[in-house]
């Protein structure tokens, strides 16, 4: 009997849970810690470790994340892999039933989505840098990271109240912190709902067992 699991980036855990509720699926979820996102090669190693540790009865792995800077380049396993053809988790959240492309992000735009500790947080990035570096160095790295972003967009994917005054206030603080203009953009959870329900069309890459994921094939939509 087919045994399916979901590999989900920390950032998308709540979205995966919501998709399973809508689609009435109960696949086990294995978290891929987003701390490895900073270095795609480290995330790739993390992915390979998780895949190699899967039980023998698992034959299908649904991937709730994007290519993420090459994190899935040259990855192979003994299971069938199903991956959304998107650049990263943000591009996944920006996809709607009416609008799809491998990468819908716009230059100069930073995006927010999620309302819990799993959500992206500019302040969390700053605090993380402070733990690793002296304050002057941390601020220099932080400013360098965000210097080319002029817009901070909240993705309205219908999974949380992104118009809640407290949420908007926090987002405005983040926008002010990087000297960006705050706005709202549409999104949805459609790709994750299609992923867990088995509706794998051209927006997904289905990789047979022992076959490597290659970037050129990944984005050849």
Folded structure, characterized:
- There is one protein chain.
- The protein is α/β, with parallel strands linked by helices and 221 residues long.
- The protein is 35% helix and 18% strand.
- The protein is built from 8 helices and 8 strands, in the order βαβαββαβααβαβαβα.
- The chain has helices at 13-23, 40-52, 89-94, 122-132, 135-146, 165-177, 190-197, 215-218, and strands at 4-9, 29-32, 60-64, 80-84, 109-112, 151-156, 181-186, 204-207.
- The strands form 2 sheets. Strands 2-1-3-4-8 form a 5-stranded mixed sheet, sandwiched between helices. Strands 5-6-7 form a 3-stranded parallel sheet.
- β6, α6 (165-177) and β7 form a beta-alpha-beta unit.
- It starts with a strand and ends with a helix.
- The model has no long low-confidence stretch (mean pLDDT 92).
Strand order within the widest beta sheet: 2-1-3-4-8
Instruction: Using the CA coordinates, give the radius of gyration.
Output: 18 Å
| pLDDT averaged over residues | 92
Low-confidence stretches: none
Distance between the termini: 31 Å
Order of helices and strands: EHEHEEHEHHEHEHEH
The proportion of residues in beta strands is 15-25%
Number of helices: 8
- Form type: globular
